[in-house]
Model the fold of this input.
Amino acid sequence: MKKTLSVWLLAAISVPGVAQVPSNKADTAGVPRMLDEVAITGYSPATRRQYTGAVSTIPGSAINNIPMASFDQLLQGRAAGLYVASGSGQPGAAARVLIRGQATYGGTVSPLYVVDGIAVESGVFMSMNPADFESVTVLKDANATALYGSRGANGVIVINTKRGKAGDISLRFNTQHGFSQLARNHFDMMSTEERLRFEEEVGQETGRTLGAGWIFSPLNPANASLPASTKSRYAAILDSMRHINTDWQDQFLRRAAPYHEYELSASGGSESIRFYSSAGYLKQEGIVKRSGLERYSFRTNLDVRAKRFSAAINTAVGYTNNSLIESENTSSGPNPIAALYYALPYEAPYVNGVLMHSGNKNQLGGAFDTREGSNAIERMENSTYKVNQLKGMISTDLKYYFTDWLYASSNLGFDYRENVETRTIRPGSFSGSQDGVPGKQGMHREEMIRYYQFTATTGLTFDRTLQEKHRLTVGAFYEFNRIKYSNMAVTGYGITPGLDGTLSGVTPGSALNSFIPQVGGRKTGSALISLVGLARYLYDDKFSLNLSYRRDGSSSLPEKNRWHGFYSVGAGYDLGKESFMEGLSWINTLRVRSSYGSSAAPSAQNFAYASGYGASRYDGAPAIVPTSAGNAEFNWEYTNTFNTGLDIELLNRRIRLVADWYNRSTKGLFLEEQLSQTSGFTSRPINAGTIRNRGVEADLSGDIIRTENLTWTAGFNIAFNKNRVTDLGGTNEFTVGTYILRVGLPVNSHYIVKWGGVDPQTGKAFYYDRDGNPTSSYNVATQSVADFGSTEPRYNGGFYTRLNWKGFSADVFFTYAQDFLRYNAIEVYTLNNNSFAASNQSRRWLDRWRKPGDITDIQSFSDRRNYTSRDLQDASYVRLRNAKLSYNIPEQLLKPTQFLRQATVYLQGQNLLTFTKWDGLDPEDNNGNAFFEYPSPRTITAGVSIQF
Amino acid sequence: MSAASCLGELDIKPTDMKDQAVAFETVSDVNAGVLGVYAGLDTSSITISSLLADENMLPVENTGGRGIQAFGWSQDPVNPDVTAAWQSFYRVLDRANRILGVIDNVPYSPQEEVWLHQLKGELLALRAFCHFELLRHYAVDYHPDSPGIPVMTASYIGKPARDKVQKVFEQINEDLALAKQNIPVSFNDPDRITRIAVSAMQARAALYQRNWDAAITAATEVINAVPLAAAAQFPDIWTDKSTADVIWKLKRDPQDGRLGEFYRNNIGRVTFAPSFKLLAAMDAASDVRFNAYVRDLSPGGATRRWAVIKYAGGQPSLANLADIKLFRVSEMYLIRAEAYAEKGELQKGADDLNGLRTMRISNYTMQTFANTTVLNNAVQEERFKELAFEGHRYYDLRRRKQNIVRLPEDVIQVPLQPTTLTPNDRAYYLPVPLAEIQANKNMAQHPKYAS
Done:
């Protein structure tokens, strides 16, 4: 195990493609060998040569110092088979992370995250500083999943943090500053001119009043007989409105939201004790006003080594102060993203510097618009929504070496998270005095969420090379994992003026003052016990064989189904080592590998199997009501995966290819069986049906030029995944909103009435029935079809290129996701003839049908607007995710300073370009519906990194 | 694997849940369960009637689009405004059935015997109420031989088919009769079902069954027990300062959903205004109901801004919080008047109608009615006014197979909206939720929605 150090070093510099080649060592000795990469580090570390599973490794350099607060978003496009889709551009928001497609319907889809051997909560990353990450490894197939047992059924993301290296203590300081703005300004709403004309035209066409443009129009028959003085006043009103053209983006968005980051780290030590210690500060303002994130993070990793004993002690604490916008992802008026669309362009929010909202507009002289924009501003200014998060991760990994080849290990770790979420509405404000606020004097809500996960893994490992050719690793472990979650929430009313933002401002409730506070909370938890056995055998660096077995017991299943065993087998063969290949010296590595294994996931809900009663109330007294149907037969969701792959290095290891084919079949899906509602429930959890994910992945990279002063590398990864529901096990297909679960289709398949177009004679929309005949009738229940595909891209990945010339380097990195459709549900609000039309509308209305013979896709304003396949849009995109220019200041310049060892200046941009047909601000989303979500920002920063 | 269990605890019990097996061990537990049944009752009958019938108009202020699909008579099997009632009433029905299935095994002391009987009676009445509401909503029509809704008398997961209307009514009648035996006369909480409330349910059920004698008998029981509200008391009923007239109401606490928000939302926008048809039917000056039910929010303004205030509540700081009156004695007068009219006993019917009007309209002069049709039409017109926004109008029209007719000014905000809906039209009926059809192969959709 003396190799540990070199293994760490290798992991740092040995990743295909992005390998950093020291500029003074261009000879092949410095080029890392692909098969010597550390593939896994979980229960016992192994190199790719020993390992037979499918893995991708992302070097820390690809994710360090990128201006994004939640590290999962940094993984987008970095590994074949990993799909990362961000649902919100709010700083700190987590993304949807999917490895090799969605293999469940009702269960969790997110992979297991393991930091330094300890499981951490998924989806909560904003308090972790990715600058501390040495590498991120994505484990994708059965070898990985069987080893992590029921926790790894959706793949595993293994994070190793930086560790100290023996030698001089080195200090590194990095800082970067910049700004964020809207990544894609694709906003197509009417201007004042267009809106007023639209209102007038609609008035003429249908007689309906949408707003001032018709009320004061000289063409309005109701105005025909008015006295001349009134007519001229109306004309003056319209004329003054025409001069208002409010740019609502100025009101709700920041054009240049500042970004600042500082980070200081120190590392070093001796052979017996090494440390890495870092402190970081990040402040990022969001592109929507009021949103932002401030993070303080600390980490110290300590390695101790004595003769027979080693210990690795890792501690990390992060504290985040996150401010969020109101009501994101809803159509409600306080959501600033929705208000951006709704607000009329002729609404001027300020009158003589005073915000005129619905609450004070009568005092300020009134307005002829909806005040939706101003009301949202009023809400934004008089309310808060903050999340303060404290996250701590502590782990201790102890090893005792009985001999060189046998050691006992014990890894204990805590992951702790506490969120304090506060929402307030200031008393005395318009928002705080509405009927929805009991007592109409503001409100304050405080919710405390506590999450804690404890993992202990203890075992014995045998690792020995026998007769120089036989390397055998055998390990046996016992693991205990316990998760506890609790929350409590208090909402108080009657806020004392000046004491908003704290519980101390809440007035105690009584029957008379109606400030009755709301109190709530819940508590849940789970436990998992596992016995793990693994064996790896490597013969002459050529043949490898992996076996693993794991038996898991989960508290989230009924007692009779609690325990289950999982296994995997894998084999690899490196032809490059064979004597008959010696003649083909341009082939350095040609390894084939294959694996098969089983895995399973317990339910995502801790007590889905149980039926029982929960609390309710009637007439002021406590009551009990049945809360879950339960299922005493509830079982695991089983996954079997076959994987076969190739590892190839060619031409003096200039070209590297890792390719995999897999077939992953998940049986006994966690489905909600739709029940006849006569049972009192709409559904109950069952295990039924099969989903298959089958796909190909390839990761190709190459050094195009590799000379002393100039290196040019490029790489490309792609993953095709074909997702199919192959069986529903006797349950009926069912629809959830505009999606259907049906045999033969992918999960999340769109299911909607097919749009036919607009009849040029009548201006009415027509649709298709299930037989494909055009019809004027619209019936969701009898006409919906599933012809449109699903919300998941058919293929996705990333590509990059990097050029190093002397001290200069340039990196360009693109990500892409292709061939999928999403609903643009925003257009239900911005392209509608019902009462939504009183709010601002899309410019697409300007192309509507007006008279017989008009050929258009937008129906007449008087035709009913239905939700159809017209609302599905191609969300495929290619994104310039990151571009970076950096310059290492030459050593000659640094030497005279006596203390500077290295200095780098850099300039980088995130989301610089987006290529898409999507008709909205952001094609990327974590679900199939665009619904007034916070769009992804573009962030441009410049920084400097100094080592001394 | 018991050896492993001692190395770590796997037996984690749900913390926020009580197991069904131990849920009902005392009479007090049963009481909590019965309260849980009441807790599930909602107000969809009232909102559906307001959306589909002629009680309401869609004002321009309803910018959120709430309820406009059903109001525009284009509801479909996935429209929650009209399908939520299916789920909600069957859920409540199932809650009652779960307890009825175990109630006879609950141990009780002699002092608790009356209480336990009362609880059982309440459960039976609640079951009957749910069956009745489901039938009113989702039966194909109300003819005894027409397909009704599945009768559920036990809690189980199955795929039941529609039972005939007659069978549903038989179950309702049986449950109500048994409930009456169990609930003691002394129990008089208007927030729960009392014995007199069971009589009121019997009267309403008999009306829909066109069983005039039973309707008269049951209505008379209630009329004799509960006086009509005096004119001075009447406005206080709607602010919950008085329980005059009220036989059974759903108690609403500040944390509960607020029906008033259906008519005027929590930022003060009128989402469904009283229809001009209804406003025209009542005389503002002499009819005590006018100012108790509706109000002009901008009396001095250039345009009228009518709002339904029946559920606006009595406390300004708890806007839209009001108890839901499910049964009032005035309905009993109208039921009895209709029954007498149908039986040709015009004088008795006229007495009931005049008796009610006298209490509601100042300086009312008694009227006479020439024949059954005239009297019955007058009774229906009176129901329209007296029971507006209480979940009657749509079902009254349906049970009498009459067209729904709106005034053009009530639908001005709905493009190209017809003003008449006939029993031949699809939207005249309610669809069974698509989720039920998908999950239950024996469940037939309403024929008007089947294609």
Notes: The two ends of chain B are 56 Å apart (CA to CA). Chain B has a mean pLDDT of 91. The CA atoms of residues 27 and 115 of chain B lie 8 Å apart. Chain B touches chain A through 87 residues (CB under 8 Å).
